[in-house]
Prior knowledge:
The protein has 299 residues and is α/β, with parallel strands linked by helices. It is built from 11 helices and 13 strands.
Amino acid sequence: MKQVTILSGKGGVGKSSITASLAIALSKKKKIVCADCDVDASNLALVFGMDTGDFEMWKSISTNQKARVDLSKCTSCRKCVSECYFDAIGWDGAKKIPLFKEFGCEGCGVCEMICPSNAIELYDVSNAMIGHGKTKYGFTVVSGQLEMGESGSGKVVSRVKELAHDISKHADMMLVDAAAGIGCPVIASVAGSGYVIGVCEPTPSGFSDLKRALSVVNHFNIPYGIVINKFDLNPEYTRKIEDFAKNKGIRVLSKLRYDKCFMDALVNLVPVIEFSPAYKEIFDGLVRALEDEGVLKGI
């Protein structure tokens, strides 16, 4: 199964909307599965008009651990307090015991390793939910959602992709909707990709953050192209992005105008390709550009 990841350097550029419409256009030619890997704020299913009842399964998973102390073994040496990088361990001066902060611990394990009395242990925590459901367009969406206050989003992304692969073994392609930025969930989303689509907008922050995101893609030596959304809002920065792409040998796969139709489609929980007939040709053109890039070759 070939993995194509759609990412953006910053939020709000239309990445999930573009992913949803591209998925529908691709599904006319190939068997696909979508993986919503923005696990801190998953919303791809909403763009398809899905709700909780449309999911066949939601289950709790653990991809992280937290530390706890056995006070009967604690010698009050305070080593765990001084060595905790995340400042997740306080100190009760009156009782002379460490205080572990539930939402501060990242599960790194340093405290367990350095405790001279073996009073600290790591335990598994249920830090996320994952599930899957079939859209009315015939393909499946797999989603993950990190629990509030929990960490480990990169590992949750990996579990979402594993589930997408397991339940859609006969699919030709996995379309991954990554989180914005360059952090752990983005790295986990990009890993294993055969191609990446970078979505950006023509603003100083949009352009700057696109270049940062593409540096992650370059690290993995994965081929990619870019889509410029709302290109007509700032012609000057659109030209800068196009010049950057030309100088780097990057293909601009598509350019989309600013259109309130995107907002209207989201309000009605319908991908814009279904909401407005004019977008069928636009996204079919994006599919053709991917074909020209060899993305669909051999699948």
